[in-house]
From TrEMBL:
Species of provenance: Pseudomonas alkylphenolica
Protein name, entry field: Aldehyde dehydrogenase
GO MF: aldehyde dehydrogenase (NAD+) activity
Family annotation (Gene3D superfamilies): Aldehyde Dehydrogenase, Chain A, domain 1, Aldehyde Dehydrogenase, Chain A, domain 2
Domain Aldehyde dehydrogenase intervals: 10-442
GO CC, one annotated term: cytoplasm
Record's signal peptide: none
Amino acid sequence: MSANENLRGADVRVLLEKQRAACLSNEPWTAEQRCELIDRAIGLLVDYQEEIVAALAADFGHRSEDFSRLFDVLSPLAAMKYTQSQIAQWMRDEPRHTDRGEAWVQYQPLGVVGILTAWNFPGNLIFNGLAGALAAGNRVMIKLSEFNPHTSALIARIFPTVYAEDEVVIVTGGAEVGQAFCSLPFDHLLFTGATSIGKQVMRAAADNLVPVTLELGGKSPTIISRSADLAAAVNKILAGKLHNAGQICLAPDYVFVPEEKMAEFVSLARAAVAKLFPTLKDNRDYTSVINARHFQRLQGYLDEAREAGVDVIELNPAEESFADQAHHKIVPTLLINPDDSLKVMQDEIFGPLLPIKPYSDIQQVVAYINSHPRPLGLYYFGNHAAEQAFVLARTTSGGVCLNDVLRHAGVETLPFGGVGASGMGAYHGFDGFRTFSHAKAVLRAADGPDLMRPPYTDQVRQFVASLIKR
């Protein structure tokens, strides 16, 4: 059974049963076998890089080829190579101290891991999740997003050339297939996507007590301290915000700016966009919004903000008209201090719109962040050690990047994941290996008297009493 658009719930269950049977009837994969399985994925990224880039461009209408090559080919390629180099070390038994004999943790494959990917970075999400799952020795089923028809068709075509169905299998299809996929009794389920869908995934997984890792995004705040180099901060924030036209789960969602520096921020933002994208409409480096539905959603945020009297500032260096564009590009836009009642301040934006909020003191900023759901990322720009420590200690987010944005997610030695409304669990690197492994406790008991067994003599009682003390 190959991946196709006509899979039904019964079909995906057959695929799971085939993988589970292979898992149970064979010895766990050795480190060498796991490395070889990952090497096949590396080969796919290298051999099909041009096709991957072209498919992503077709799915987005327009997407920077260089950006796709960096983030959907090179980035997952580097992650897989790093994972491959560490597998043998990660698989070693982990000694634990005890005075009762010899103790250790043995990392075992869970069995079959399900992965549901999002549409914004399909290459990155497919191969990054696959790296951890294979490193841990699991069979893997991957459900692709229906919003990437060209990329999904390519992945569905190339994976069976290197993987058997009982090793790694690709599942395509719409919402019905996705629901059936989430309802399978996997040994672990990794989902990347919107919080609203994450809730549905978790409900479906709960029926089979399937543990889940949810990477859900959210509204990641950015703080510019008075101690920051404002020009450098603005350049990094705008560059990060406009990666993939803001369609990144970790994109800076809104920025806190010292109230006396608001005008300067706007001026520097204009200059930053002009340097990054002197033109927008036909610029090969400026990505389109994925589809008409998301384009209209973002336009709705702008319309609502304008009607509410918000100062909406378009950063359009060449003053181009987008009325007759061939794609769904949106001009980078600043929204000055929008009210929290507006949708742009309630929903994850996932587009090139950037609300700017003035502040007078850092405690006000931290209080605001803590009054909202915990975000996937938080960004702080500044050189004030005490203030930085205050922000780190008093806020909770999936991860933090200091004096930059996004880049912590590319560090394979750091866990990547959310907290609260932005998700649960983590993967990447060793944290991915642990997420997709069962940490089995093992004790080789030492010889000697066992106080836990009767008869409980006076001598035993006296000894136990002697131990119960402060």
